[in-house]
Amino acid sequence: MSDASTPLLAAALLVGGLTLLASGCSAASGKPDGGSGSQAGAGSGKLNLGGSGASGPTGSGGDLMLAVGGSVAQPPGACSGLRCQVPDCTGQAPTTLRVTVYDPAGVTPLYNVAGYVPNAALAEIATGAACETCATPVSGEPIASGLSDAHGQLLISEGMPAGTNVPLVLQIGKWRRQVTLPEIKPCQENSFDDPMTFRLPRSSSEGHLPRIALTTGEADALECFLRRIGVADSEFTNPDGPGRVNLFHDSSGASSFQSGDVYPPVATLRASLASLQAYDIVLMSCVGSQSDGRLVTSQNKQDLQAYLNAGGRVFLEHYHSAWLRGGNESQEIEDARKYTPTPFPPVASWVPPDDPAYDGGHAGSSAPYLVDTSFPKGKDFADWLGFVGASPNGAGMIDLFDVKHPAMAELPPAQRWIYDTTGVPYFSFNTPLEAAPEQQCGRLVHTGIHVGVEALTGDKEGPFPSGCKSQPLTAQEKALEFLLFDLSSCVMTTDEAPRPPRVVK
Fold first, then answer.
1. Which tops the pLDDT comparison, 496 or 359?
2. What Cα–Cα distance (Å) separates residue 159 from each residue in 95, 96, 339?
3. pLDDT, tens only, 448-475
């Protein structure tokens, strides 16, 4: 190898499954995810990483790093960028970071948000369905990472660099924001709790948001829900606009913006698989009647399944259960409900085989429901609901208003989240359904409830955003917020607890 005065050999040799990478000990420069302002964490647009100023993840020098199974081991004394700022705290307290992570509104602490210190520039996040799982590495070559717990607490306790202007990335799925820590002091805990700094982005100027297709409906206003969790009004546009949330008119729901622009019809979203694949997440507000569910064609359903199998994320509300039904129930039910055939196997039972007219739930009233705590995320969901004030009647419980016609029961491999003796108003499953769990990369959530009930939220059908009211989230909106960000997150099996992003060592 050449000495430090010789340009770095930019090569990687693959030998028997081991990757040899050239490395040096100089600074890395990166570009944050946008944002501006002078307060700590607002995103200054610069990273002060220390070192001698070489750009990129490697600099000058002739050290070798040995990558085994995706982790990079360095010989003693070798470092680059922020790794050179990790203090040796032998015999002392470790250098740690503790922050509370919030939703885009800066109000509600969030669960399972990754926080990591990058040692290289962040890569752009591609828009559209992509088959990625929690085993897929995040960009930026993180040297330290952690996950927020059920109280929104993010702790990074290993590999944390010290110094000024230390970058921190907050990410869950395709929500990503990079902030700047003004100073990390070595060999001690560094705690921050600033909701306006340590939150997910409200707009594209602050970071990256997933591209969301949202269908309006007569019975709910999910667009108002997204607005209440903090998504900026500027992000709600038609598909030809710059916003990350595109609204589509379905049935008799809201059909225009306050500016006068009219939403495109939902048929344009359903037109083809390519139309769906332009989005990271598809949210469908309830249309208000079963007859609307019969308008969904078998080809529509096949396209939705293909979108999910390719890594798409879908939220179906109430009567949108029609996408999952048709040709997979008893003949008596098929004759009564008349849904077009679906490619999905049975993932839930909706009505008794001998009583196709049955509709469960607690329409028009409030009732207590239980949280399924039999799996790791379910336990954390129950804990989170209690912490954010959505379980006033006891741990693991939530009152839901106006639950109508939920699934009676989930069927394997679907996972229930909330239930009572009358039904399962929240369940989910990963896709492709026929694939091994570790190969599944899409996700669907169904709810048998109107989340933004006018009696609770004050939201009304009308031009956006004038029909939306500004008020705190209701308990059932908080439940949906948890499940929305879980829908956004990387796909994993339900029998394991989330793990922080893999670091490069």
1. 496
2. 8, 8, 55
3. 887 766 656 767 777 899 888 888 999 9
State pTM to two decimals: 0.84
- Cα of first residue to Cα of last residue in the chain, in angstroms, is 22
List the alpha helices (DSSP H) in 322-403: 331-337, 376-387
Higher pLDDT, 377 or 9: 377
Could you tell me the CA-to-CA distances from 40 to 45, 131, 180, 268 in Å, in that order? Answer: 12, 35, 6, 43
Pair of tokens at residue 77: 């004394």
- Name the CA dihedral angle for 267, 268, 269, 273, rounded to a multiple of 10 degrees: 100
Q: How many CB atoms lie within 10 A of CB 52?
A: 11
Report yes or no: 69 and 135 within 8 Å, Cβ to Cβ: no
pLDDT at 453: 61
- DSSP3 helix / strand / coil % (the chain, rounded to 5): 15, 25, 55
User: Is the pLDDT reported for residue 4 higher than 50?
Assistant: no
Nearest to 348 by CA among 281, 392, 407: 407
Q: Where are the beta strands (DSSP E) in 245-321?
A: 245-248, 281-284, 313-317
Which amino acid does the sequence have at 22?
A: A
Backbone angles phi, psi at 418, to 5 degrees: -135, 140
Q: Report yes or no: 348 and 414 within 8 Å, Cβ to Cβ.
A: yes
The burial of 357, by beta-carbon neighbours within 10 Å (0-12 exposed, 13-18 middle, 19 or more buried), is given as: exposed
Residue 353 and residue 359: Cα distance in Å, rounded?
12
| 97 alpha-carbon distance from chain centroid | 23
Q: Which whole number is the average pLDDT over 43-51?
A: 32
Q: What angle do CA 180, 186, 187 make, to 5 degrees?
A: 135
| Cα–Cα distance, 59 to 291 (Å, whole number) | 64
Q: Which of 30-39, 260-269, 386-395 has the lowest mean pLDDT?
A: 30-39
CA angle 320, 324, 326 (to 5 degrees): 105
Contact by Cβ (8 Å): 361, 404: yes
Write down how long the chain is.
505
What is the pLDDT, as a whole number, of residue 88? Answer: 96
Q: CA distances (Å), 294 to each of 291, 297, 324, in order?
A: 5, 8, 12
Q: How does the average pLDDT of the chain come out, rounded?
A: 84
216 torsion bin: left (phi>0), alpha (psi -120 to 50), beta (else): beta
Tokens of 38: 């002078």
Measure the CA–CA gap between 14 and 220, rounded to whole angstroms. Answer: 55
- β-pairing, 71-73 with 63-68? antiparallel
**Calpha distance 236→8 (Å, rounded):** 47
Measured distance CA(82)–CA(504) in Å, rounded: 12
